[in-house]
């Protein structure tokens, strides 16, 4: 399972915001709320109310209700969604296809220098889950955030952290005999 670290996410969102603010906010919503691309594309204006996003999850996941993130750092500020939702209550906020979003994230990821294996939309969901694990060490928090019904679906993020620790340990190993 591939994911982006904080530095890669900053590079990606910087490129996306520079090229197209609407693409940027769509990808930001996907990251912060741990959405599949189809869940992002299904968001309608009426799904945003009182500064919260209601997400109807797919693949038998539970629906979630998340507060929108407001931040002085515009790369990670979702407040543009409020106006977008108000002016488009009955329509999809991001009227694109999954294939189009795949092209968009591949393009911006390439421009940001992200490894080709990480150039897909679902990596955003993996990234927020890994970041949540690193910050909280609470699998329940991840499970609730992304709407997993089964804790076994969430355990994969623990493995990602373990893989990173293994790679870091190997990089620091000495192989000198003596």
Please give the structural blueprint.
Blueprint: H1 6-19, H2 21-32, H3 37-41, E1 48-49, E2 52-55, E3 64-67, H4 80-87, H5 98-111, H6 122-136, H7 139-146, H8 151-154, H9 156-172
Antiparallel strand pairs: 1-2, 2-3
Helix pairs in contact: 1-2, 1-5, 2-6, 6-7, 6-9
Structural features, described:
- Helices cover 54% and strands 6% of the residues.
- It has 178 residues and is mainly α.
- The chain has a single domain, classed as Intergrase catalytic core (hpI Integrase, Chain A), CATH 1.10.443.10.
- A 3-stranded antiparallel beta sheet has the order 1-2-3.
- A hairpin with a 2-residue loop joins strand 1 (48-49) and strand 2 (52-55).
- The termini are far apart.
Cα-to-Cα separation, first versus last residue: 37 Å
Portion of residues within helices = 40-55%
Radius of gyration: 17 Å
In the residues, how many domains can be counted?
1
CATH class reads: Mainly Alpha
User: What average pLDDT do the residues reach?
Assistant: 93
Overall strand count:
3
- Supply the helix-strand structural class: mainly alpha
Biggest sheet: strands, sense, closure? Answer: 3 strands, antiparallel
Contiguous runs where pLDDT drops below 50 for at least 5 residues: none
SSE pattern, N- to C-terminal: HHHEEEHHHHHH
Number of helices: 9
Strand content: 5-15%
CATH architecture annotation: Orthogonal Bundle
Q: How would you sum up the global shape?
A: globular
CATH fold name, please? hpI Integrase, Chain A
CATH homolog superfamily: Intergrase catalytic core
